[in-house]
Amino acid sequence: MIKRVSIVLANYCPHCVPFSLRNAKKMAEYLGVPLLVLDIELPEQLEAADNLVEEHGDWSEDYLIPQVFVEYTDGRVEHLLTGFSEAVAATEASWKALFSSSHYQSLAHEPTGVPHSHASSHHNSLEEFVEKYLTFQGQCHRHCDNPSTLVHLKSDSKSLIGAYVCPSGYVSRVVYFSAFPDVKPLKDFLYSQVGQEIVKDRDIRPATRHGWELGNDALAEIGSVSPTGVIKEIYWTVYPKTEDERRRGIFLRSYLKQGRRRGKLFIQNKQ
Ligand SMILES: [Zn+2]
């Protein structure tokens, strides 16, 4: 039996309020259970929020919000959704896909709530899957008002590293995609490109992407690119703390290799 729906959020976060809070309320009403709202800005709710995210969600020192869970009376907790760093519109779209998924309907009827991804004859590579379902048009962050697009930097059969880059080459964030949440390949890659000093743990944030929040086509295909039925994203978004850090930025020197845009990261002053 489902006990409640829980959402970890903050009022300042545009991915959280108003629409994620509204959608979590809608979900709790649909399931006929209470909604637990844990606001990380309220000291009395922070510990419970941290515990839920650390044990069942996408945990890091400065984790992503919102994170949404379904809690069962037998103690099981299922992670349903984490906000998309790429764009608020991507988080909104993931709620929409969740609501129209068979998984969402099954929550109301089958209290086991075991996520399932359908076997598919379609065999995509992880890179193709990411291009189709996990690539969004973003907005350049702390640099200009232009859109940012995902440039693939490194890929193999199991993982992909890409960077969201604006037309001037400024990098808003680097994203690692894999079936498993292994942070080491991402760190090794970043160290090799920009050095260790600028890569801080607090700027690294994981997110679990389920098929149901990416739409029915993705749900049908996710099993062929991930044995776990989920794709883990790990974001590296630099949040500068000092004046010196604010002046600098990560940029991409891009080039064409076999017709595809590739590139190398480097640090320079923004002006
Ligand atoms: Zn820019």
Structure description:
By secondary structure, the protein is of the alpha+beta class. The chain folds into two domains: about 1-110, Glutaredoxin (3-Layer(aba) Sandwich); about 125-270, no CATH class. About 30% of the residues lie in helices and about 30% in strands. The protein has helices at about 20-30, 45-55, 90-100, 100-110, 125-135, 185-195, 215-225, 245, and strands at about 1-10, 35-40, 65-70, 75-80, 140, 145-155, 160-165, 170-180, 205-210, 230-235, 250-255, 260-270. It has a six-stranded antiparallel beta sheet. It has a four-stranded mixed beta sheet with strand order 2-1-3-4. The longest helix has 14 residues, at about 45-55. The N and C termini lie far apart (about 55 Å). Zinc ion binds near residues 140, 146, 166 and 170.
Largest sheet: 6 strands, antiparallel
Domain module count: 2
Please give the count of helices: 8
Distance between the termini: 57 Å
Report the average pLDDT across residues.
91
- Order the strands across the largest sheet as they lie in space: 5-6-7-8-10-9
Rg for CA atoms: 19 Å
Q: Which geometry do the CA atoms define?
A: globular
